Structure formats: structure tokens, C-alpha cells
Amino acid sequence: MSETSEPAFGGRRALPRNASNAAEDDLPTVELQGLMPRGVNLQDYLHVANIHLFKERWDTNKVDHHTDKYENNKLIVRRGQTFFIQIDFNRPYDPRRDLFRVEYVIGRYPQENKGTYIPVPVVPELQRGKWGAKVVRREDRSVRLSIQSSPECIVGKFRMYVAVWTPYGILRTSRNPETDTYILFNPWCEEDAVYLDDDKEREEYILNDIGVIFYGDFNDIKSRSWSYGQFENGILDACLYVMDKAQMDLSGRANPIKVSRVGSAMVNAKDDEGVLVGSWDNIYAYGVPPSAWTGSVDILLEYQSTKNPVQYGQCWVFAGVFNTFLRCLGIPARVVTNYFSAHDNNANLQMDIFLEEDGNVNSKLTKDSVWNYHCWNEAWMTRPDLPVGFGGWQAVDSTPQENSDGMYRCGPASVQAIKHGHICFQFDAPFVFAEVNSDLVYITAKKDGTHVVETVDTNHIGKLIVTKEVGGDGIKDITDTYKFQEGQEEERLALETALMYGAKKPLNTDGLLKPRSDVVMNFEVENAVLGRDLKLTITFQNNSSNRYTLSAYLSGNIVFYTGVSKTEFKKETFEVTLEPMSFKREEVPIRAGEYMGQLLEQAYLHFFVTARVNETKDVLAKQKSAMLTIPQLTIKVSFTISDKGEGQGY
């Protein structure tokens, strides 16, 4: 058997996969048709002397296509919109006897039926939605063309050629990197799948390269500035490299659904050597702590230059980088923050908190978690793969949480479909639905193996969903785009619809659901300031004519913002006696020394309170988190003028 370095391709595939924008093969400069007679000199025919692309920032092409902000000296245009080029020939162009066309090529194995080889004919009139070139000016040896691109064109960097027909074959310009042309998605084009009809929203979700990302606590929302930098030098090439690294077929890069789904997988490095390594263990010895990043540019440029994942990221860093990727390619995008975001580990659309019979949390059975906040992205696009009405904002998440079709990625999932519980539609709608609209279910795991649902909290998850307001740095509440108001019939109907579509896995509760207890428990956490003591106030309300005694248990934990506990710093039990129709308050002091030695980056104090009504065996359960605020430091400077006119500062 002879050895060969040539790859073998079986089945119906005639050519290798065309999955790299950077890879290329030059087209031949001369394509002869048969033998050429002696004495014929092809240089006597029409010949291209020069090509002008009008690619300076102030030129019409970049201004009209809203690409003048890109720090890139190549021509950058948006698909579905006309742009201009000028071709200088060796003699005046005569349309009666001269025939030429412009060609655009991307990748190594160009094919016209795949959209990777685009012949652009010279036509009398341009047609919307179709490639074509129209002569708009002829002057001496120069011809100016208006070129119309298809709104379904592949997004990427194309190589450009001009081909001239002769009686003996084709003369083609040689490869010239100066004529390379980037073609992007176009939110200004009605035929483009990412068309957005509001000019202020286009300004915000495509052209704004700085922003804020919200974090913190539901009752204490904070913001961090983030530089998306989608127009910075090298970022566009870095974003194209991300798709190359994913070995994404070039023909799929015309579809924003596929591009955003690949992007959600590639921004994290969990299973594909993507952009960012996630770390939630507070150990960052081999990289940059997530909280130290202030923008996407350094991350993307480092990833492209080193060809290795960058360390480290957490949800807001993943969301910030993903936002840069989407906006840079022309897909309208924004970062979203969900407060009390559920991580549904077993896809049953509810958060299952398992309790021991004494009221303690059973950490072995409890696999679901509630993040104090979680950031993801929304991308704007049509969804022709879904029923009418499910286009618009799509939730996409690059933080590696759960596996989707073999990779750590999430979305795009229609926000409208999530709101109405239509989670049968791709991609990953059940997971996003659970993040914003699942119930918190407290279940006692009995020693005989049965499970008893003690109580259901329908209001804890998805308390508030926000994004940056258009044209400012304020908060825009978008909770109502994901869910109906808590307690409304529509909200329960959406949950029932989600369950109807078969996403819920039955929980073995043996049909046991306890009736509502006569006793109501709640608690509040005093404003928690770093280094200071605080107080936790637990209230009990007896709504019956019976006298009750309760055994209560308090657990205080240091948790990551993801809801995962690092260590328990407080454990306390106490007894409560409630007279008929009475109200009682218990106060539990939390000393600073109890939690200070256990703190970590992005840490929260999480409190879990359970109480058992001894007479009825009812179990009451509540949990809340408190974000530690840093004490405010005020520096006062006094300045006096002496009699000599000299200033003195203190």
C-alpha cells in the first residue's frame, strides 16, 4: 500500500469541508478554453490596471454602511446594501465588445452553490436581494460600479477578483490583499435576518462600544463598566478566528441563528478550547481574576495571538465578550442580568431543595442551585425555523452550565416562546425558562425513601431581569418580556404550558403534598456592611386559634454568587412558642468575626431558616442572600491661605 498525504473523502462529499475563513487557494489568473492560436497576445485585450475600493473612514462606503468606526484599513460593508468600487483598465471600456465581472471568494474550496464563490455580473439594473454590479460612471479608462450584495450572503472576509472574458478564455486579476472585503450582517437592511427598525436601538445594540453590566443583589443593584471594543484594531479578525477555531462551515456563517449558537459554545473553553476558562473556586494563580477584567479587547486579542484559552472568566465576563462578538459581526445584542437565577440541574423545571427530617438541607440530594444573579446575552434576529411570532430577542448564554447537543452552550432561545411556556422550540428553551420562572420546592426526604413536598415558593426565582437602557447607563426592567407578573393567571398558565410540552421529569413525591400551614414564617437580613456585625430578624405569624411550638434551625453560609456554598459559618437552633392568633419576632445576631475569615471574591452571606411545627409536623422554609457592602471612605482636605499668601494643606 502506498503512503499518501492526500486526504480521502468518501460518500457524497466531493470537496473537503470549507470551514476556515483564513485558509485560501488562489484562483488562476488565466483560464484558457482550448489552444490559443500563434501570434495572439492576451495583453491586447481589456486588462485591469487598478482597483479602488473607497475604503477610507470618510468615504461613502464606510459611512453609509456604518462601518467607519472600525480600526481597519480594509473595505467593510454590510450585506444587502449597495457599495461602490472603481476599476481602471488599460484602455476605455466598451460595453459592446468588452465583458467582465467581479468575483468574491471566501475559504479554500469555493463553490457557487455554497455561497463561497460569488460571481457578480454587470447588469443594466440592480435587483434587491440579488448580487449584481451596475456601471454608474464611465470616464476615460475608469469604470465606477455600484455593487449590490445579497442580504443572505456569508459573513466574513472575502477575496476580490476581476475577471475579463476574451475569445480564448478568462483573464483574472492576481490575488491582492488590499482588495479584501469584509461583509457583515446588516440591521439596517429590511431583508436581512437581523433587521432592527429602531434607529436608537441600532445605535445602542450595534454601534455602542461601551456599556454597563449589572450585578449585585436584587435589593442592592450595582453596575460595572465594560468596554466592548468591537471596533478596535484586530477585533473583527479575532471574531472571525473564533468561528474558524470552531471549524464552523462557511456556508453556515450566513445564518445568525447558527453564528450565535457557535459563539455561545466558543466563548467558553469548557470542551472546545474556546476563548475563556471559567473559574468559580476563588483560585486565580495562573491567570487574571474575573473581577479584574474591564473589557473584551485584551481577552479576544490574547486568544487570537496565543491560540489558547484565556484565564479566567465568570458569567459577566462571558457575557461581555460574547456581546463584543455579536455586535462586531453586525448582530444586535445586549447583556441581560437575572436576579435569583435558577440552575435547573435535572431539567424538571423546578428548584428542588431536599430537607432532612430535622429540617437541615440534604446537600447530597440537592443538586439544583439559585444564583444571586446571572448574566447572559440577547441577540436580535428572525426565527424562520420557528412558528410566526417567535422572532426578535433570543436568549443566548456562553457561561458553561449544562450540555446542549454535546457542547456547553445555550440558545438561541426565543424570549417570546419562553414567556408563554412554548419550550418545545429550539434551542435550550426549557433551561432558560427554568432560570426565570421555575418554582422553589422544599421536599422532605424521609428515612423510608418517600419524598414529601413541604412548601412551594412561586415568587423567589427570576425576581428581576434587567439590561442597560437605550442611550444611557440606567436600568431597563425587561422582566415582563420573559414572564407574566407573578401570581397572575397567565403566569401559571405559562408554567402549565411548559409542563404540557413534556419537559418536566416527574418527581417521586408519592402524591404527598401537605396542606398550607397555619403558621407563616419570614425573615429579613439587616444591611450587611463588610467588617461589621449585623442582625437577622425572623418573624412568625400564627393564623389559627391553636397554640403551637416550633423547633427552628438557622444556617449561615459563605456562598459564591452562583449559589454554591463554600463554608457554613453560623449554625443555631432555637424554640418558639406561638399563642393563638399571635405574632412573634426572633432576632439572631451575626458577629463580623464569624464570617470575615471565610470571605472570598464575589461572596454573599446566604441564610437558610427552617422551622418545624411540632404539633402538625409542618415544615416552614425560607432562604435569602445578603451582599456585603464595602464601607464608604470619605477623605476631606482642608486648604488655608496664610498671611503671606502661601497655601497650606492639611
What layout of secondary structure does this protein have?
Layout: E1 30-32, E2 48-52, H1 60-64, E3 75-78, E4 83-89, E5 99-105, E6 117-121, E7 132-139, E8 142-148, E9 156-166, E10 169-172, E11 181-184, H2 199-207, E12 210-217, E13 220-227, H3 235-245, H4 256-266, E14 276-278, H5 297-306, E15 310-313, H6 315-329, E16 333-343, E17 350-355, E18 369-381, E19 392-397, E20 403-404, E21 407-408, E22 410-414, H7 415-419, H8 429-437, E23 439-445, E24 451-457, E25 464-468, E26 475-477, H9 479-482, H10 489-500, E27 519-525, E28 534-542, E29 548-559, E30 565-578, E31 583-590, H11 592-595, E32 604-613, E33 619-627, E34 639-641, E35 647-649
Parallel strand pairs: 3-11, 14-15, 17-23
Antiparallel strand pairs: 1-10, 2-4, 4-8, 5-6, 5-9, 7-8, 9-10, 9-11, 12-13, 16-18, 16-25, 18-19, 19-22, 20-21, 23-24, 25-26, 27-28, 28-31, 29-30, 29-32, 32-33, 34-35
InterPro entries: Ig-like_fold, Ig_E-set, Papain-like_cys_pep_sf, Transglutaminase, Transglutaminase-like, Transglutaminase-like_sf, Transglutaminase_animal, Transglutaminase_AS
GO biological process, one term: blood coagulation, fibrin clot formation
GO molecular function: metal ion binding; protein-glutamine gamma-glutamyltransferase activity
Task: Walk me through the structure.
- Its cofactor is Ca(2+).
- The protein has 650 residues and is α+β, with helices and mostly antiparallel strands.
- It folds into 3 domains: 30-35 and 43-184, Immunoglobulins (Immunoglobulin-like), CATH 2.60.40; 211-501, Coagulation Factor XIII, Chain A, domain 2; 519-627, Immunoglobulins (Immunoglobulin-like, Sandwich), CATH 2.60.40.
- Helices cover 15% and strands 35% of the residues.
- It contains 11 helices and 35 strands.
- The strands form 10 sheets. Strands 1, 3, 5, 6, 9, 10 and 11 form a 7-stranded mixed sheet that branches. It has a 6-stranded antiparallel sheet with strand order 22-19-18-16-25-26, sandwiched between helices. It has a 4-stranded antiparallel sheet with strand order 2-4-8-7, with no helix packed on it.
- Helix 3 packs across helix 5.
- The longest helix has 15 residues, at 315-329.
- The protein is elongated.
- The protein starts with 29 loop residues before the first strand and ends with a strand.
